[in-house]
Amino acid sequence: MADNNVDPPFIAFNFAIAISIAGISNTICSAAFSECDGLEMTMEPKTLREGGNNTRQFHLAGPVSYGTLTLKRGMTKNFDLWKWFELVNKNTTNRRLRADAEVLVITAARDEIPVMQFHLTRCLPIKLKAPALNAKDGGIAIEEMQIAYETLTLLQAR
Question: What mean pLDDT comes out for the span 79-92?
């Protein structure tokens, strides 16, 4: 008998990203991103062996490390990401300037209702790449930013 209550998988192309810096701006980036990658956590287990027991090992929870968020978008007149990168690297006072980010996965109906939300804290821009320029190509100019973050939390839809 089939279970009709099984939820379909989320659609990967329906997402929105909001980056905000406390005291500076509610959202520093209003343009849409075409790609978002690097939402990941990795735990390195601590492995212990018991003396005399060569057939078993014990794993304890170890430190957690986080990925690097990579964002890509078609370049527009919105240079907020470039300004943020410049502010952080301009002088020692702004080197502590961090942002929080929200990555929202939206329903397949594209009704702006998030089905899940990733919350990233203390984000730091670590790489900003201008688009490749090629007169023969005729494609969209895609800029790329990489962001290091300190924590990643999954918030489920209500």
Answer: 84
CB 100 within 8 A of CB 119: yes
In a domain, 10, yes or no: no
Can you give the CATH number for the domain in which 74 is found?
2.30.110.20
Does residue 158 surpass a pLDDT of 60?
no
Q: What angle do CA 94, 26, 108 make, to 5 degrees?
A: 125
Residue 114 falls inside a structural domain? yes
Alpha-carbon gap, residue 18 to 11, rounded angstroms = 19
Question: DSSP string spanning 82-135?
Answer: HHHHHHHHHSTTGGG--EEEEEEEEPTT-SS-EEEEEEEEEEEEEEEEPPP--T
User: Containing domain of residue 100, as a range?
Assistant: 15-42+70-156
pLDDT tens string 39-85: 999 999 999 998 888 899 999 999 999 999 999 988 888 888 888 88
Contact 113, 121 (CB under 8 A): no
Structure tokens at 51: 């003396």
Nearest to 22 by CA among 118, 119, 123, 154: 123
Q: Can you read off the two tokens belonging to residue 69?
A: 């968020």
User: 68 - beta bridge partners?
Assistant: 148
SS3 (DSSP) at 92: coil
